[in-house]
Amino acid sequence: MSDGAQRSLHDLGFSELVEVLGRDGVILHHAKVLWRTLQGEGELDLAGRDFLPPLKRWVAESVGEGKAFFLDAPEVVDEIRSSDGLTRKFLLRLRDGQVIETVLMGYQGRHTVCVSTQAGCAMGCVFCATGQMGFVRHLRSGEIVAQVLHARRILNGIDPEKRLRNMVLMGMGEPLHNYEAVMSALDSISNRRGIGIGPTKISISTVGVVPGILRLAEEGRPYCLAVSLHGATEDERSALVPASKRWPLTMLIAACRKYGEITGRRIFFEWTLIAGKNDSPETAKRLVELLRGIDGHVNLIPLNPTRGFSGTASGAGLEFQKILIAGGFPCTFRQRRGIDVAAGCGMLKAEKRMRTA
Ligand code: SAH
Ligand code: SF4
Q: Which range (7-16, 70-79, 99-108) has the least confidence?
């Protein structure tokens, strides 16, 4: 790695920060102050802060170019706002030049940040712009934390009274393919003395990485789970989601049942409606059978058109929803609000590449 032995201070959880400072003889009180400054306030200019001498000295000796620690402060390369002004999508450049997407959404007074967990994605879903880029690398925990800090800074600039209370892991990448870094980031982000987003307000969206789903349940992680399903038979799903060959639909549904039994929590099923691929009334009926007995909620979202695929029209989407509800399944049909320019995951980056090519 280009940073050599350097580490990001944003990679450290609270207890690690206490340990690191403790090793240099700096007591717990100062570690708490540093944590609040870094994570609670999102400060990036530590040298400019008026800390007490032991912490001021530690910062001067340990943080900066050529020193033990750096800060994750991604640079904004581009920003796109939706026409209603409620969605702002940022292209952020990381230290090694990789570019990722972070989205801040605000509807009905609720503010949500959508973060990326990888540069690119290895799962190759055929309708997803990120999937079509391929996998580049996992993000570190600090790079995930830094996206939330960025979104909060922006929100604060719009209105200091507003709080960032919700988070979804629905940007670029597959969160359960980068399990350790994602869990470490979520521990930090949900820490009440730091950013403090409540764990039940954090949704992890997965393409269906079965071992990850089971691990979430076994470790008792308190976050919400969303599973991107998109197909009700093995053939239908595999044609859209190649990862289904590795973790087949029957195995995935069994894991969801187990997750429900262990956690007692409702699972959200994401269903991207793609014209002519997975939006027929027959598919809706098969989906009702597939999910029978699971405490779940289905979110239907028309596809943001990508090369060769288009989204389902409203009429057919509402019909699909009606069948699920009649089958006893809570189901929301989300018209894509304000996502006109912000587009789906990975699409801004793909578009930018075309603009600059
Ligand atoms: N890898 C995870 C999380 C990131 S993708 C996952 O697949 O769940 C987040 C969501 O965006 C997924 O439900 C995915 O199917 C959806 N998505 C990807 N491309 C899309 C597009 N062009 N239009 C609508 N939704 C899309
Ligand atoms: Fe990866 Fe999710 Fe896109 Fe599939 S939909 S390629 S899992 S980011």
A: 99-108
Report if pTM > 0.70.
yes
User: Is there a contact between 127 and 303 (Cβ–Cβ < 8 Å)?
Assistant: yes
In this structure, is the dihedral angle defined by the CA atoms of residues 340, 346, 352 and 357, taken in order, positive or negative?
A: negative
The number of the ligand nearest the C-alpha atom of 178 reads 1
**Pairing outcome for strands 110-114 and 166-169:** parallel
Query: Distance from the CA of 173 to the center of ligand 2, in angstroms?
Result: 6
65 burial class (0-12, 13-18, 19+ CB within 10 angstroms)? exposed
Q: Is the CB of 117 under 6 A from ligand 1?
A: no
User: Could you give the CA distance from residue 214 to residue 203 in angstroms, rounded to a whole number?
Assistant: 16
Residue 345 bears catalytic tag: yes
| Of 61, 79, 101, 256, catalytic | 101
> What are the tens digits of pLDDT across the range 263-299?
999 999 999 999 999 999 999 999 999 999 999 999 9
Taking the CA of 336 as reference, the closest ligand is 1
**Where in the chain are the domains?**
3-70, 75-356
Q: Is residue 341 over pLDDT 50?
A: no
Domain 75-356 has CATH 3.20.20.70: yes
pLDDT for residue 348: 56
CA distances from 46 to 86, 197, 300, 325 (A): 32, 23, 45, 53
User: How many alpha carbons fall within 13 Å on the CB side of residue 52?
Assistant: 9
CA of 39 to the centre of ligand 2 (A): 29
Burial class (CB in 10 A: 0-12, 13-18, 19+), 245: exposed
Give the ligand 1 atom nearest the CA of 226: 8
State the average pLDDT for the chain: 93
Provide the token pair at 318: 């509402």
Considering only CA atoms, which of 319, 349, 318 is closest in space to residue 335?
A: 318
pLDDT digits (tens, 9 = 90+) for 134-175: 999 999 999 999 999 999 999 999 888 999 999 999 999 999
The whole-number pLDDT of residue 82 equals 84
CA pair distance 194, 201, nearest whole angstrom? 15
323: closest CA among 269, 287, 276? Answer: 287
